[in-house]
Design goal:
Layout: H1 2-31, H2 34-67, H3 78-111, H4 127-156, E1 164-171, E2 174-178, E3 218-221, E4 226-232, E5 237-241, E6 246-250, E7 256-260, H5 266-273, E8 280-284, E9 296-302, H6 304-313, H7 317-320, H8 333-341, H9 343-346
Parallel strand pairs: 1-4, 3-9
Antiparallel strand pairs: 1-2, 4-7, 5-6, 5-8, 8-9
Helix pairs in contact: 1-2, 2-3, 3-4
The chain binds copper (II) ion (CU).
Residues 170, 237, 284, 286, 288, 292, 295 line the site of copper (II) ion.
Length: 350
């Protein structure tokens, strides 16, 4: 409300100044003293420049306090902390450069306003100045690009060997998540095998697929690297995990990936955000059709022990859908039955 009042009064003051100026111009035209108007309008314009700049700075200051309510909460991954630090550092650099250059930009029209006693000074170039204002931004920008590049390569580099792997497939209009089961290997897939139940086209000729499971919620352990393998079934989608500061397009025919390490469990984040109903979520950030808005998937960060427990309780796709055993080559069918029924014990045979 305060912001609204401040903005409204600033607009009102500007409007009044403008009207005063207009009235005075008209009066001067009527009385025939046009030279005086030029001098007067110059003065008013000159004073308005710094006034406008200072009021804009005050408005930005108030607005940033108001907008901070909508900032993303604390980053919940190691990469998120790096990304956030980089963001705030860049914002700081830009703010300093902005305030410096714009202070001069708005101050100079005031300082060098028209004066009959002053003649313009011809000052075509200054090599030293040119070199300084080229080299300093060049060094700062190179530094920023370097840190940004390092953060990016870190997120997209190969995940550590012990990373928890999961596959996420975007389709119009939901996400399908697949874990590799106890063997840690995702079974291969083939788009020709997609049907209403086998939504990602799991290929049951590959024995790594026997224990794959497709849960309704993503679970990941705190403090361990997690690798998301991303693909799309139809159009472009984009996997966005705002709390972990992760975002990657899901592209049909071109698998992508990223990895990160979560640092707060869902429960811890409930404490941090002071919101007992807090849930991590995954959203689609590529306008992919009319159901785009509904592409939400919940994500839970567990303590590593709870995660193991949850992982062990999940039922393999083949166990839930025994009809698909028919797709398993006959010589592997016994193994498939064993693995899917009791994935924990039988995997040593792989
Ligand atoms: Cu989408």
């Amino acid at each position: 409300m305060n912001t609204l009042i401040i903005v409204a009064s600033s607009v009102l003051i500007l409007a009044i100044l403008f009207l005063l100026f207009r009235v005075q111009s008209l009066v001067s035209i009527l009385t025939g003293s046009t030279k005086k108007i030029a001098g007067m309008s110059n003065k008013i314009n000159a004073i308005l420049f710094p006034i406008f700049f200072i009021s804009a700075l005050i408005a930005v200051y108030f607005y940033s306090g108001y907008a901070s309510e909508f900032f993303l909460p604390k980053p919940a991954s190691e990469h998120g902390v790096v990304t956030d630090n980089l963001f705030w550092f860049i914002t700081g650099v830009i703010l300093v450069a902005f305030v410096l250059t714009n202070s001069l930009l708005f101050y100079f029209p005031y300082k060098y306003q028209y004066s009959p006693d002053r003649k313009a000074h011809f000052y075509p170039d200054n090599h030293k100045l040119e070199i300084i204002w080229t080299i300093i931004p060049a060094i700062v920008l190179t530094g920023l690009v370097f840190f940004g590049w390092r953060a990016w390569t870190d997120i997209t580099s190969p995940a550590p060997k012990d990373a928890v792997v999961l596959e996420i497939t975007g389709k119009q209009f939901n996400w399908i998540v697949r874990y590799p089961g106890k063997d840690g290997k995702l079974g291969s897939y083939n788009f020709k095998l997609i049907d209403a139940t086998n939504e990602v086209g799991i290929d049951f000729a590959d024995k790594s697929s026997f224990d794959d499971f497709l849960p309704r919620e993503i679970h990941i352990p705190k403090g361990k690297p997690v690798l998301f393998k991303i693909r799309a079934r139809d159009v472009l989608h984009s996997v966005f995990l705002p709390h972990f500061r992760q975002k990657m397009d899901a592209v049909p025919g071109m698998p992508t990936s990223f990895w990160f390490t979560p640092i707060y469990t869902t429960d811890e984040m409930r404490g941090i955000t002071n919101n007992p109903a807090f849930k991590y979520e995954l959203a689609c950030t590529e306008v992919c059709g009319k159901g785009h808005f509904g592409m939400k998937f919940l994500l839970v960060v567990d303590e590593p022990d709870d995660f193991e427990k949850w992982y062990d309780q999940q039922e393999a796709f083949l166990k839930k859908n025994p009809d698909y055993l028919a797709n398993v080559p006959s010589k592997l069918r016994d193994l498939a039955l064993n693995v899917s029924n009791n994935s924990e014990n039988k995997l040593s045979s792989f």
